[in-house]
Amino acid sequence: MNKRNKIIYIAVFFVCLSALAISYYMFPDEDPVPEGSGDFVREQTSGPSRDAGKNALFGNNTSPAVSPVGQAVLDSVTDAASDPYVSYPDALIELLNIDMDDLLANRDAFKNTIIHVEWMDRVNAILKNLDPVKRAAIIKNQTTLLYIKDKLNEAYLTGKIDHATFIKALADLMKWHQKTYESMLTNDEYLALFEIAPEHVDDTIDGLFDGAPEYSFILNQGIPPHEVTQQVQGYKLEEVNSHFKRMVWDREQIGKKINAGEMNLDQAREALNRSQQAFIAKCKEILTIDEINTIFGSLEALETGATPTEAPAVVGDEDIEQLGFQIENPTTSVDKVREKINNDKIEDIRFFYQEMHTEKEKIISRLDAEEITLETYETISSEIDAAFEENCRSILTDEEYRLIFDVTGVTGSETSPPSARESLQESIEKEIVPQKTTEEKVPEE
């Protein structure tokens, strides 16, 4: 049922997820469907719409520019010349020393990311009569965006660029990408797709990055980040930050190895745990207990990667044991479900849940036996989730459905998927390390 709650990583918004994504801690409680290329350990960075200051370094031109970098510039110029809607952010390509041959050869790999698939679903749903040439250009421009974002992540996490440069580059990458849509869409089409006027986009992007925290590992919610930097010596924060970025980098590489078939889930879980334990050990070595409390809130928070939250209404497997299905709304208790929903519906949901659980056990067994790939597993699992959701919605009112399955805990008013504008702010607040993930489906070009 997580599909219902994914953010739609609308093109202009998801790019910032990568580093700001680091703002969430990365200690998976369950299977570490890793990052770097997986909707596994989520982060993301992108979801069902349902799902990211110009200075002299990057230039102030407001129209897409063709990159003249390297020998492969001829290919990119030819690409853009044959399709005026295709462009390249040359300043970023120069900053990252990107080889154009590699970009042109490998950007298609990002077509199988959830961010791209779900974005193209939105494009195809809203712009039904879009010129096929423009649709193909959107795919090229967005896979270029994802390729460059991946290179930006690498440059930042490996220390090749600093935080300020990284944030500036992300903002410029988003602005460039939005300009590509201005060049091919009418104003009405643009508004329908993004739910924000193009003249407001640059200021909105700048606002999202204003005050982006450099130390994303700070978990203590009781102290403002600027006060943490005053209470803990700067060199210690820098050292912790370098180890934190190393952990994020490890996670990305593990995710890529899983998707390339070079590592199975057990190996990934072990590698993730080693990386996380190495980070924890370094923090304990570098920081005093008072400094750990200042940064993370407590030693326990450091070791678990989470801050204490209010206990949920359901304890343990109480809902499974008494109702036969899981309550996803953290504010809803077993007693409240029994009070608000009649027994026949509860029995139906129990049946749907058990069927879903049985089907998932089957595909997990096939995955463990290496009869299916990880990508196929994710696709089938998503379809099973969708079928369960559809079955439950068919017998429940909207209010009843929210009572059980609304993970936000909002049960008093009608809820709907976030709009593009809402996703803009929400995607900043959510963590997500850049993710390349399984191919739920490949968008039509």
Please describe what this structure looks like.
With 445 residues, the protein is mainly alpha-helical. The protein has three domains: 2-214, no CATH class; 225-304, no CATH class; 318-411, no CATH class. 58% of the residues lie in helices and 0% in strands. It has 21 helices and no strands. It has helices spanning 11-14, 17-20, 73-82, 90-95, 100-106, 114-126, 132-157, 163-182, 187-194, 198-209, 225-231, 234-259, 265-286, 289-296, 299-304, 318-323, 334-340, 343-368, 374-395, 398-405, 420-429.
Mean pLDDT: 75
The total count of helices amounts to: 21
What gap, in angstroms, lies between the N and C termini? 28 Å
Question: Helicity level, as a percent range?
Answer: 55-70%
* Outline type: globular
Please give the largest β-sheet: none
**Strand tally, please?**
0
N-to-C SSE string, H for helix and E for strand: HHHHHHHHHHHHHHHHHHHHH
Which segments are poorly predicted (pLDDT under 50) over 5 or more consecutive residues?
A: 1-78, 409-445
Number of domains: 3
The gyration radius over C-alpha positions equals: 23 Å
Summarize the structure.
This protein is mainly alpha-helical and about 450 residues long. The chain is built from 21 helices and no strands.
Features:
globular, mainly alpha, disordered N terminus, 445 residues
